[in-house]
Amino acid sequence: MFGLGWSEMVLIGIVALIVIGPKDLPVMFRTLGQFTGKARQMAREFSRAMESAADDAGVKDITKTIKAAANPQKFGVDKLKEATDFKSAIKPGGETEKLSQERAEIRDKIQEATARVASERIAREKAATEAKAAKEAAPTAEAKPAAKATPKQKPAAKPKPAAKPAAKPAAKPAAKPRAKKAATPKPEAEA
User: Fold this and answer.
1) In this structure, are residues 14 and 8 in contact, taking their beta carbons and an 8 Å threshold?
2) How far is it, in rounded angstroms, from Cα 23 to Cα 17?
3) Of 74-78, 146-150, 185-189, which gets the smallest average pLDDT?
4) For the chain, which has fewer Cβ within 10 Å, the N-terminal or C-terminal residue?
5) Could you give the angle at the alpha carbon of 30 between the alpha carbons of 24 and 31, nearest 5°?
6) Which tens digit of pLDDT belongs to each residue from 89-109?
7) How many whole angstroms separate alpha carbon 69 and alpha carbon 71?
8) Going by C-beta distance under 8 Å and a sequence separation of 6 or more, which residues neighbour residue 157?
9) What percentage of the chain carries pLDDT values higher than 70?
10) ∠155-157-158 over CA atoms, to 5°?
11) How far is 96 from 105, CA to CA, in rounded Å?
């Protein structure tokens, strides 16, 4: 209540027991309890009187309005609800319906244009593949001049000369068999 812990309350109780005495201590606690009860009752009455005066002046309504305006989370949620409430926003023949029809027409035009461009690209790729296949299939007279060396191209590789007949290896003198050396007994060391 007054920021006192249990240890401090026990210390105050022991000091009161010594100073006041065991006979008068219960009377003092009863008087102290009545005094604190009266003080709390007076505080409650005062706060009730202030609340009723504020109600009469309309302060609660103003306070609610200020709190609602000051709360950004609630403000944002309300605006989101307003923005996403499509059922109430769409009116037959209204501005929203006109916009949705215009957007649908634009979407259809974009899809048609995309399909047309895609089919043209596929046709170009197909024609290019057919032309490449035709070029590879029929060799033309242009292939002969390509064999000539141009300054940018490397000259054709010269043919390698035929392999020389393998020369017979020179006869090596026969290796002489080596005689094994006789193992000579080692003299035993005398003890």
Assistant:
1) no
2) 9
3) 146-150
4) C
5) 90
6) 556 666 777 778 888 899 999
7) 6
8) none
9) 61
10) 115
11) 14
Tell me which DSSP letter residue 113 carries: H
In this prediction, residues 60-70 reach a mean pLDDT of: 78
b/e burial code for range 52-69 (CB count within 10 A of at least 16 → b): eeeeeeeeeeeeeeeeee
Question: Where do the structural domains in the chain lie, given as residue ranges?
Answer: 1-84, 87-138
Q: Residue type at 136?
A: E
Cα(72)–Cα(35) distance, integer angstroms = 46
Of 45, 129, 67, 167, give the one whose Cα is nearest residue 59.
Answer: 67
For the CA atoms of 15, 19, 23, 27, the dihedral, rounded to the nearest 10 degrees, stands at -80
What predicted TM-score, i.e. pTM, was given to this entire model?
A: 0.29
- Write the burial class of residue 27 (CB in 10 Å: 0-12 exposed, 13-18 middle, 19+ buried): exposed
Please name the residue ranges forming H helices in 58-144: 59-70, 72-84, 86-89, 95-137
State the burial class of residue 20 (Cβ atoms within 10 Å of its Cβ: 0-12, 13-18, 19+).
Answer: middle
Residue 1 burial by Cβ neighbours in a 10 Å radius (0-12, 13-18, 19+) = exposed
147 contact partners, CB below 8 Å, separation of at least 6: 156
